[in-house]
Amino acid sequence: MSIISPDYAVFTPAINSMYVDAIASTLPNDRQLPDGLTLDDFAFWLKSSNLWHHEHFLHSIGQYKVGKQFNNAVTQRGRTDGVLIGDSGGYQIGKGKLEGLDGLVAGMSGNDACAAWRSAYDARKWIVTWLETYTNYAMTLDMPLWATGSLGKSSPFHKCTDKQLTDMTVENLQFIDSHRQGRTKWLNVIQGLDAAGMIKWWKAVKWFDCAGYACTSVIGKKLGLRAVLEPLLTMRDDDAFRKGRDWIHFLGISTAPWAVMYTAIQQAIRAEINPNLRISYDSASPIRLASVNEQYNTSPAFGLDENGWGIGKVQTPQSKKLVGSQEPVPFNSPLGDRLTLGDLNFREGNKFTRRQFDTLSLVYLINHNIWVYLTAFQTANDLAFAGNRSQIPPKYKACIEVIEETFKVDDWQGLLSKEQVLLDSFTG
Length: 428
Fold this sequence. Notes:
CATH topology of the largest domain: TIM Barrel
Shape: globular
Helix content: 25-40%
Number of domains: 2
Strand order of the largest sheet: 1-8-7-6-5-4-3-2
Number of strands: 10
CATH class of the largest domain: Alpha Beta
Radius of gyration: 22 Å
Number of helices: 15
CATH architecture of the largest domain: Alpha-Beta Barrel
């Protein structure tokens, strides 16, 4: 059973290639795992894991070189071993950082960028084939609108127009439509820089036959909850969430307040439209904090103060003096309860490196951090939906009530306008 109840929106941690490569490799001869664990136990999506089990996760093809055939814990898994959502690498393509995708360079004209992408048949075929082969759900190939703004100054698509990016995305959908084999369930990516932009995008791509949707979360973090609800309700009115279109994924977000709002939306859609609908959301935050910053996460305090709903992060003790230490690590989790600081601080520093952590140390931290995120989201949802909501911030309670009402009324535009101040103030 997954850590997060099926009644709640589900977090899908965005696992990086380092983690899945490491747990599918041979343990170094000079390394031992604690308490008889094996590397397979770190594949938390497997029911056989002796640490903890959560069946949902995300992995991006954008981490690999175009055309590469790789062998790791993702490609080795059986299709019934967990639920894998595959990211199509749109972020890396938009940034011009998809390795092996030649011909796309910063500074090129919009017309040249369009021509270069349209000639990249092998790359598109490789992406679609990999997603069809290994994933349960897969995101369609979108050309990101943010490439034209300040965040996309170094993007090959920076000089493209919104229409060019939309047209290329429609062509990508046509490509998928003609090459799909029916081995994965496609999630139609719905993006935009604001609610109006998302609705316009939706009108252009809604013809594509899919199992659900993958929606941008940027506008919610920048513009608030109203900017999320308006496109969703427009899509609802266009019959987007009918039976068979049972999944909505929100890209790149992982906070306890948004976990609660996504559950409220899921429950509202289940009650009014489709009882089988599931909402998921992802981010790489717990993985990045461990593998890049070498930090461990701590659980939120929760309570009525919104400031108590943040997941904490602490620098992990690292020192040559801790190599071989039997002192317990300063964090608790199914793995943390078995670890010593000596398990993390393994290497003797030298003149070339002062770091005592190796790859296995980072795998330990990633596993712990994901568990903290998952249990935090479960607790947040329990506070919001398993009781009388007396222990959550008043703003969160009010927003949940608006969500519940909005999916029931005919004049949802009027209700969103009436509650605009409240909804715009929630950015999670």
